[in-house]
Amino acid sequence: KTGYSPSLIGQMYVGTIHAFCQNVLGDADAVYRQYDVLDDNRFTLFLMSRYPELHIQPLRARLKNNPYFETLEEVQHAWNVYRDEGIALGAIEHLDPEVARSLLAIEEGLRRDQFIDFASMARLVADKAKDDQRVKAGLGRIRHLLVDEYQDVSGSQEELVGAIHLLGAALFVVGDDDQSIYGFRGAHLSNI
User: Which member of 4, 19, 114, 175 lies 3.0 to 4.6 Å from 151 by CB, making a disulfide possible if both were Cys?
Assistant: First the structure.
């Protein structure tokens, strides 16, 4: 007998960082409970179904009429970098107005149609952890945080973990630099 209450396990959250972020967003603002989650395949379908309004064709033409699916892959990669790294849209616009125009259209389309992708989940919670009192209150209840596979944590996820730690949670991370496989998705091995 350990002396711990059996109800203690009910206070734990065990799951992916994306599911955690979806819960945090839904608890802070009920509108996020209505959002459909887009995995990589569904995000590609989102880009395909709204191709003209997302201003992707000018990007494809600039890439010397890159094959259609390769262009969609490049746009999705640009979106993930934009969200994972928290790059200001103005900075992107300064460097490449056409890419910024497409990213803004994607952002507006996702919000309008109530979709959210994995990169946006973590970015939204990381951003809201700075100044949204509902999100800060929810994250502030976390006393202990264990993050496994830390070598695969993206920039926005690292920001979120740091925010939870700053709000008082004890932090324990596990990772193996020899098993880093998500660099193409914005994971930073240097986080370890």
Answer: 175
